[in-house]
Amino acid sequence: MSSRRSRVSEEEINELISKLQSLLPEARRRGGGRASAAKLLKETCNYIRSLNREVDDLSGRLSALMATVDNNSAEAEIIRSLLRS
């Protein structure tokens, strides 16, 4: 009986797939057309990987920028304040 309660209904799965599809740029470009759950999960993994690469790139660029800025300068303070927000 408890195993039945812990299962996710097909309706809940479809709702989660719909929500996930609305978050992915590739799926939004496709419009209202539904992709298979497997394809959507693959797109999600690819999108997360691309976001990770972008974060790594931005982190490297920020590190390079900070290395060229005097820590006591107004520019450094602006960068620190942006990172805090």
Automatic annotation (TrEMBL):
Keywords: Growth regulation, Transcription, Transcription regulation. Signal peptide: none annotated. Coiled coil: none annotated. PROSITE patterns: BHLH. InterPro entries: bHLH_dom (IPR011598), HLH_DNA-bd_sf (IPR036638), PRE (IPR044293). Belongs to the bHLH protein family. This is BHLH domain-containing protein.
